Amino acid sequence: MTLLPNKKKDDGATIKLSPEILDLLAKFQQVELEDFEMEVGDLEIWLQPGAVAPLPTLKPAAPVVKGKPAELQRAQFVLPVETYPGKIVEVKLGATRGEGGTRGRSIVIGGETSPAYYTFERPVVHPPVVTLDVFDMEVPLSKAVKMHVKDVVGDPAAWAKLAVEKFGADMVTVHLISVDPLLKDAKPKDAVKTVEKVAQAVDVPLVIGGCGDPAKDADVFQEIAETFAGERFLISSITRDMDVERCAKFVKKNGHVALSFTPMDLNLARELNRRLYDFLGKEDIVMDLTTAALGYGLDYAFTNMERARLAGLMGDTELAHPMSSGTTNAWAAREAWLKMPPEWEPRELRGPLWELTTALTLLLAGVDLFMMMHPAAVKTLKDVVKQLTSDGKGDPAKYVKWLSLKP
Amino acid sequence: MNEKAKAKGGIKEISPIDVYKLLPKINCKECGQDNCMAFATKLVNREVLIEQCPPLLKKENEKAYKQLKEMLKPPVKEVTVGTEPNAKKIGGKLVMYRHEFTYFNPTAIAIDVTDEMTENELVNRVKRAEQFSYEYIGYTLKLDMIAVRSTSNDPERFRATVKKVTETTSMPMILCTLNPSVAEAGLMAAPKSRPLLYAATKENWRDMAELALMYSCPLVASSPNDLDTLATIAKTLMAYGVQDIVLDPGTFANEGLADTLNNFTMLRRAACKNGEELVGFPLMGVPMVAWLDNHETPEEIIKWREAYLASMLIVRYADLIVMHGIDGWSMLPTVVLRQNIYTDPRKPVAVAPGLKVFGTPDENSPVLFTTNFALTYYTVASDIENSKINAYLLVIDTEGSAVDSGVAGRKLTAEKVAEAIKTSGIESKVKHRRLIIPGKASRISGEIEELSGWKVQVGPRDSSEIPKYIQEKWQP
Fold first, then answer.
1. Which residues of B touch A389 (CB under 8 A)?
2. Residue A195 lies in domain
3. Least Cα separation, residue A56 to chain B (angstroms)
4. For residue A175, is it within any domain?
5. Helix (H) or strand (E) holding A18
6. What CA–CA distance (Å, rounded) separates A103 from A95?
7. Contact at CB, B312 and A307, closer than 8 angstroms
8. d(Cα B20, Cα B7) in Å, to the nearest integer?
9. Which residue from A33, A315, B164, B240 has the highest number of Cβ atoms inside 10 Å of its Cβ?
């Protein structure tokens, strides 16, 4: 098992990384100690966390100065805990046999009564979930992503299985891009077949993604909604330029959930949600306020989501919906995939870190559902969520060792 | 954008009128504004400094000046590390959430060195930190400080190391040791350079306070995971006469991550929302605690963890962070995120549409188009500028959408492109009729040809390849 990259000292050139580093990122916890010991010598820096500096040779304490405190002046830090009039709606995704579907489990998102991870105030109600992207045809993928899915591209069912079984996806998004009239113009019946195969391969709740053509998507979504009535699929997405009434009706009638998508404008988000309320319950709507990549508008996306979440908690019910993020958009940033000069390489690490940074930023704005791509980014996001939702064990004695760490 | 600046503690809101009342009201224009009211508005928006009003600095206006200073004081104090022209300001935050106004003073990033490195290692590492640079839509992203740690606990070694660092770089320093004798040796090697002193604890605070006063340098109060004690140390230091304080609530990775975020969030909320003065200081985070992990953790994983910890701290209110990993792949997301979070949210997302000219194009020069989403436009523009190509760029009004989302969301349509060609006057500037379109807009290439009568060439999906594309594929 060659898990570690053979990294040479003063290696200014491109670092040759075996693809396994990414497996390692994903599976690190399971790796046994023996696997490493042989490789330790290859590492450039090896820290000795246990090494503690010699006991300080304190100089004689400064004499007490008149008029200045000789002792600590006690102060108390008052915990700044607040309450909020609003609460984020809980939305259930997926339905089990008992609930009218065929999924192995259903997942509830939302329900927050505090801003994201203010756990000093209130615990997290439902941890966020990750849905992995699966495409129904070949699409341009970055090298860092492709190396993990190359065997399953073109086979959505196998891809979904890989996402759930190997990459730990809570859900799977089936992107039906082949229905695009400007691409393959596949028929709604073909899309149904694709979804059928995926639904049989995995039993997690599904997200159904369209191609972006408002008329065609409505046709495809309707066919799928009716065929898979009761499954509580998340229909991704309903946009302002679609026949909103028609879409909302078939989503409601067949027991699914609508993803209300708007382009980074909270007024438009409120407006679309209001139109949906005529036909759908609040508990049938998740909203997507648009995700821009790190470096390419993430600041707008972050602030938009943070504002929406705070507004929802302050009682703006039109924004009090769980939020979904197309975090995969992180790969639209050239720094995520481009081959760059050696000092910025390897892109096999830079790329997933780009997606992870985008995800974690939005996690802190309050995102409940992440649509993601890279297994290492997914794995770390899930680890972080786990750490943030458990009781903190910050150890002061360990912390001060950063001062004496020896490279 | 009409949200008003929150005053200290968010208790009162400042209006330009309140500020105006304290100004000389003589409309002398010495500040460069048309009148005192315009200056008052700019002061409230933090676009000018009080000191830019010369009459206010006169003896007779001293009282008004002090009142204004107090009125405009941010709930998080601004602390200066180092000396001009290389001083770095940290903190100075007016609000907790960036949409409430904007954030000032981007999180400073310090790279650590130790007093047990060889001279070569030390100099190379400092130079590497100093030379770190990335060009991003017109900004140069850099690192900010050097954190010198005494791992030897030997005053002599520390003195020599600090001296070497000051000889090598003009970046501001953080002197890191809990031993006052060692700290003093370091300060003696850089007596006038106003480094940040790390740290005063509940044990050594008196000695550290004396040193901070003697060398007039800012001082970190450190109390990991104990905010009562942190407030206690801050209170004591203030009583001692130390004014420039930085707070270190401890940084914990992995199993302590929840504590880290909670501590930073609580401190910032207490300062900005409740006007708690004892914690109204910049916050320091130490992502390099990721290196405290077990021996068996591979280096790439440690760097990965350190990088995402840094990013989370930047989002959650850290004003200064100390890092050990300095690799490009792990540092790039951190510095780009910092730039994003500290972008002024009051600025528009879109640039003006229309025809932009690059270099000195003639009737045979290429014509390209892009969208008016600010980031798309600046990225494309800088790629064209840097390659010194002579070209025309049509900026289409997509209501601030990028190319791919514009095509998907019908904000970027063939109609709009055809319309822009007609109204921009480009047809009288070039004699060819060939348009290079973004690769991500290839879906609408046929429609563009139909509606505009121009021939379409589908260009690269990423604008970094425009120079190469034009060189190889453009023939007028």
1. 258
2. 94-386
3. 6
4. yes
5. none
6. 6
7. no
8. 16
9. B240
